[in-house]
Amino acid sequence: MTTSRKRFTAPQRLLHWLMAICILSMLFIGVGMVSTVTPKYLTLVQIHKPLGIAILVLALIRLTLRFIYRAPALPPDLPEPIKLGAELSQYVLYALMIGMPLIGWGMLSAASYPVVLFGSVHLPSILPVSPSLHTWLWRAHHYLAFAFFAVILMHVSAILFHKLIRNDGIFETMAPVFTRNQPK
Amino acid sequence: MVESTTSPGTFKLGPLLFIATVVGVAAVAFAYTAGWLSPHRLTPKKIVAGLAPPGGPALGHRRNHAKGICFTGTFEANGDGSALSKATVFARGQYPVVGRFNLATADPNAADAMVRVRGIGIRITTPDGQEWRMAMIDAPIFPVSTPQSFYELLTASGSKDPDAMKKFIGAHPGFLTFVGWAKSAPWTGSYAEEPYNSLNSFLFVDGTGTTHPIRWSLIPAAQPVPVSPDELAKRGPDFLEQEITQRVAAGPQRWTMVVTVANPGDPTADPNKAWPSDRRTVGVGTLTVQQIEPERDGPCLNINFDPTVLPSGITTSDDPFPAARSAAYSRSYNSRTAEASYYPGNATGAKQ
Q: What is the distance between the terminal CA atoms of chain A, rounded to a whole angstrom?
């Protein structure tokens, strides 16, 4: 699953940083909207739905690019536990990027809400109306959102650790621009 | 950032502090956004909790307007609404409706004669898959002007302080207009004899993109017959459901949907204030209730009559209530669907 390239390809890097902005915004919008009754609530909900679908589409494109272009190999001197953590976190992040929008879409479907993207553009229902299904999905969406944020914090901590403490070139594989420290 | 002078592989305090700071700042920002650092923020949770009676909410039921009965029918647009809104629902035609007559109480077992405010929830679906949901009541104005004052009303009415309501009214004199209606308006013996009002202002967007601030009402075809509350109490605790079931079985019941267009300067942001009676009105169609259905397992049970579910051509206005209602209704829906095992008839569990 790796490539001899030292960095992710430009489209992969572009998607990574674009999605980083989208997903962080999404998580803040999510926790913000459910805690307010001001008109901001509606604005945030109206952003949350199409942005979620946009993240789903981008994640699927990104997963496809990952299969085509692969990822640069991790440094050979990386200790096994860190290597395992790095690989596992990729799976978790992809699962959340694809799973969260689907759970949200399914949750709205199970609650008989129309899934309006903008104006008259809406998505079909993907699940039957069911209180038990809705409850299950709603709880999953709720708890996984916090898990997602925690995983992102770990991801950021880890990459800063690689850059600032190990300086092992992993940050440079996804860096938006070339930095002075080229991968070893 | 502190530059470390130690060799690679040894402990570096500076970078670790930097990482901890980044994570800490992000976590605090997240907690602030979630409202965890703002205990005074008016949240959907607070409003829904405020609606609950002293003994706690009726599990499995809507947190307000808990007592009701489902119906199905149609909305037949006459085409006249199209001049004000491009929404498909106003194009001449007949569209299916799922609705619910209800009482403004958090108690699903309240006696009908004890509840002053009656309401209706409607979902109109057009063939393009768009929906217009609304929840309206028979009062001509809302008791208060803002969601914050609604929360204060809930707090005051549930307070043990005997002066709480007096203090509330002192701070919100507009509430007396509502009390005036509640005391003087005649009661009727039927859901079919009630008018229902949107109270909130919305914007209709016409084909040219021009917006029109509007409110709307459902005006009953049935002639209202005043009946005293004492007389209604003798008819039994569920007379409204029994009456409407028999009445609709005998023949469909109709309401005219009348849209009122605001003049510039009318109080669109304040549902406690009626608009002058000379405002332009447009009859846009007819709601026909064709079949009453039980609420248990009925077609309206799992519908949240969220008034912000709007078709393209209708949007919210500067009225702050629809957003607050949507936020609170959503919380109510999430709670009651999670408690489905407590709902009558579902005693064996939520799994269906």
A: 20
CB atoms < 10 A from the CB of B30, how many? Answer: 20
Helix (H, G, I), strand (E, B) or coil at A7: coil
Q: Which helix (H) or strand (E) holds A85?
A: helix A80-110
Say if residues B123 and B133 touch (Cβ distance below 8 Å): yes
Kindly report the nearest CA distance between residue B155 and chain A, in angstroms.
17
**B188 vs A: CB within 8 A:** no
Q: What is the DSSP letter of B274?
A: P
Count other C-beta atoms under 10 Å from residue B219's C-beta.
17
Query: Cβ separation of A41 and B323 shorter than 8 Å?
Result: yes
Closest by alpha carbon to B87, among B48, B58, B126? Answer: B126
Contact B131 A114 (CB under 8 A): yes
Spatial distance between the Cα atoms of B45 and B111, rounded to a whole number of angstroms = 27
Tokens representing B138?
């028979």
* Whole-number pLDDT of residue A181: 52
* pLDDT at B348 (0 to 100): 44
For residue B311, give the 3-state DSSP assignment: coil
- Candidate from A41, A130, A156 with C-beta closest to B326: A41
Q: Whole-model pTM?
A: 0.93
Residues in chain B with CB shorter than 8 Å from the CB of A33 are 327
β-pairing, A2-3 with A71-72?
A: parallel
Mean pLDDT of B62-85: 98
Confidence of residue B350 (pLDDT cuts 50, 70, 90): very low
Partner-chain contact B352 A131, CB within 8 Å: yes
Q: Check: CB of residue A34 under 8 Å from CB of residue A48.
A: no
Residue B8, chain A, CB below 8 Å: the answer is yes
Q: Say yes or no to pLDDT of B108 above 60.
A: yes
User: In this predicted structure, what is the pLDDT of residue B202?
Assistant: 98
Of the residues A21, A25, A35, the best mutation for testing chain B's interface (the one with the most B CB atoms within 10 Å of its CB) is A35
For A37-66, write each residue's pLDDT tens digit.
999 999 999 999 999 999 999 999 999 999
pLDDT tens digits, one per residue of B203-259: 999 999 999 999 999 999 999 999 999 999 999 999 999 999 999 999 999 999 999
Judge contact between A106 and A137, C-beta under 8 A: yes
Dist CA B137 CA B126 (whole Å): 24
- For residues B75 and B125, the answer to whether their CB atoms sit within 8 Å is no
CB A183 within 8 A of CB B24: no
In the block, tokens 């990386």 appear at A78
Q: What is the pLDDT of residues B20-58, one digit of tens each?
A: 999 999 999 999 999 999 999 999 999 999 999 988 999
